[in-house]
C-alpha cells in the first residue's frame, strides 16, 4: 500500500494561517470613459440585403411577364392601358428591380450606400405611382366603376404612402442598429 500523500496537511478551516479569499476591489468607478463591447457586427444588413435581392428577382420576373403581356394589342385594348401607362409601369418596375438588387447586394457587403439607394428607389417608385394614379386611363377606370376619381386617387395615394413608409423603415433597420458594421460609403 502507498503512503497517504495528504498525511501532514491540515484542512483550510483548521489551518492556523489566515487566508484571504476573493479579490481586492478598488473603491469608486473603474471605468474612466466609454465602455465599448467588442462583438461581431449585426447581421441585419445582410439579412435585409438578401431579402431585397429576392424581391428584385421576383420583380424582374413580373416585369418580364408584363412586357410579354403589353406586346399583345388585344390585352392593351381590354385593360385600357395607354402607351404612357405602359411606359410608367415598366419604368416603375425597372427602378424597383435595379435599386433593390444593387442596393441589396451592397447591403450584403455591409455598404451604407445600399440602404440609401433602396430608399431613393422607394421614393422614385412612389412618385411614379402617384403620376400613374392621376393618368386619364386610371381616372376613366374609376368613373366606369361609378366611383369619383379624385376620392379614389387620394385613397390610393394614402395607401401607397403608408406602404412606402413601412418599407422604408424595414430597409433602414441596419442604420438603427447599434453595431451595424456598415462602412462610411456615400451614394453621391
Walkthrough of the structure:
The chain is mainly α and 188 residues long. It is 63% helix and 0% strand. It is built from 7 helices and no strands. The chain has helices at residues 44-70, 73-79, 83-108, 112-133, 136-144, 149-171, 173-176. Helix 1 (44-70) packs antiparallel against helix 3 (83-108). The radius of gyration is 32 Å and the shape is elongated. 14% of the residues are buried.
Helical content, roughly?
55-70%
What is the succession of H and E elements? Answer: HHHHHHH
Work out the radius of gyration: 32 Å
How many DSSP E strands?
0
Q: Uncertain runs with pLDDT below 50, 5 residues or more?
A: none
Average per-residue pLDDT, rounded, comes to 83
Biggest sheet architecture: none
Span from first to last CA?
Answer: 84 Å
Strand content: under 5%
Structural class: mainly alpha
Number of helices: 7
Shape: elongated
Secondary-structure topology with pairs:
Blueprint: H1 44-70, H2 73-79, H3 83-108, H4 112-133, H5 136-144, H6 149-171, H7 173-176
Amino acid at each position: 500500500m502507498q503512503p497517504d500523500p495528504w498525511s501532514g496537511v491540515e484542512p483550510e478551516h483548521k489551518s492556523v494561517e489566515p487566508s484571504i479569499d476573493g479579490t481586492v476591489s478598488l473603491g469608486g468607478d473603474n471605468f474612466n470613459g466609454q465602455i465599448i463591447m467588442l462583438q461581431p457586427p449585426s447581421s441585419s444588413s445582410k439579412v435585409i440585403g438578401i431579402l431585397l435581392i429576392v424581391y428584385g428577382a421576383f420583380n424582374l420576373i413580373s416585369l418580364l411577364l408584363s412586357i410579354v403581356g403589353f406586346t399583345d394589342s388585344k390585352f392593351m385594348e381590354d385593360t385600357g392601358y395607354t402607351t404612357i401607362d405602359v411606359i410608367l409601369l415598366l419604368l416603375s418596375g425597372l427602378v424597383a428591380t435595379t435599386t433593390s438588387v444593387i442596393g441589396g447586394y451592397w447591403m450584403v457587403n455591409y455598404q451604407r450606400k445600399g440602404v440609401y439607394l433602396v430608399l431613393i428607389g422607394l421614393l422614385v417608385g412612389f412618385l411614379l405611382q402617384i403620376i400613374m394614379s392621376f393618368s386619364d386611363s386610371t381616372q376613366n377606370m374609376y368613373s366606369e366603376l361609378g366611383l369619383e376619381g379624385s376620392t379614389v386617387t387620394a385613397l390610393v395615394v394614402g395607401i401607397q404612402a403608408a406602404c412606402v413608409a413601412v418599407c422604408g423603415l424595414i430597409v433602414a433597420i441596419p442604420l438603427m442598429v447599434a453595431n451595424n458594421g456598415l462602412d462610411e460609403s456615400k451614394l453621391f
